[in-house]
Sequence to fold (448 residues):
Amino acid sequence: MGGDRFGSFGLATQLARQAMPADEAIALLRSGTAKPGSLLAYGNGRSYGDSCQNDAGTVVDMRPLNRVRSFDAETGVIEADAGVLLCDLIAHGAPHGFFPAVVPGTQFVTLGGAIANDVHGKNHHRRGTFGCHVESLTLQRSDGRTYHCSDSDNARLFRATIGGMGLTGLILSVSIRLMRVPSLDIVEKVTRFRDLGEFFDLADAADEANEYAVAWINQLAGGHGRGLLFTGNHAEHGSHAASQAGGRLSVAVQPPFNVLSRPFLTVVNAAYRWKKGRSSEPRQAGYQGFFFPLDGVRDWNRLYGPRGLFQHQSVVPEAEARLTVPALLDAARRAGQGSFLTVLKRFGDVRSPALLSFPRPGYTLTLDFPNRGERTLKLLAELDCITVEAGGAVNPYKDARMGAETFAASFPEWQRLEALRDPAFMSGFWARTAKKLGARPDIAEAAE
Fold:
């Protein structure tokens, strides 16, 4: 976790050198005296790369802004400060039969961070991204003005802020619609598949029949993607109480080396497949284990050692997936790089309101690699090339090293965000990619 060190979750990027309390940053912005590129909101440090870092300026600690302002138990609309954690939203809505419509793989993200990255979950095929459920937001910009943004009010700023990686200003508060559910418990079914071809044959039906669907791949196994398909739906009869956030286990001290070696991963993957794939019968379980399994071990990222990890998440069009996904896995195997967590899922065609949003129709593959320096960077560049050549995209808020050209190919509309970016806000990611590309005046003018 970021903690007071204000780092990124991947641990491979430089720590923020300075941090400013949210109230001081708000006062500075309202005075109109914030310097260009000097600020960037920092939530709970769950971004893997430098999209939550500002090497040349100051990060703004948003966690003290953590008040739930109102909740409508009839409609599920909740208004809260940007620093409220997702686990707190779950706890607030659960007794009334509501749950966030979209949750990522951790509940320890702030509301503002979830919007800034337009995060997705295991049900994109039905609910789209997190931004699809935002009713409105309040944004503080460096011109001294506070903007109320929605589909009908400051709509361009609204769309730019969702998925805008914190570059349009400081999100102060948000109004979002939760989803009514019969219970928080999940009825989960696990289906084994022998290879990626069998997974792709199963994927359409899995999405059609289930609220949630995601696959785990044994990336170290021979062949082309043996793994498990997890599907789930909220149980008709189950708990309406949020369980305590956070696991009992913790990696209290960072080891001086990468614990997740290839032999260790081989054993873990085999054990995981055996344990989870023992039965194909549906089972009812609590939501934490289904949505947030890694939250059960606090600071698990420390297992990668002091050099940290890189995560590579790509999305490729559905028509290209049967060739491209095996090519990505083959590249990692040829490089001798083992992924601790390899996840494959299908994105649907529910369109996000965001100006820039990573999810798009197709299949998304996520790989985690220990940082082994140049060797790992070379592999990640190869994965970028395979993805872009297939007409796909690389996820910016999981990234710590992609080149400007990869970003431009993944997000050809990036100039529109640059045109609406607040001049006082900058991130390490944006400086490394978009600023090196420059903005075309014709695109910038079209966005005004």
Summary: The first strand starts at residue 19 and ends at 21. The domain at 186-404 is CATH 3.30.70.2520 (Alpha-Beta Plaits). The chain is about 30% helix and 20% strand. The CA atoms of residues 415 and 442 lie 10 Å apart.
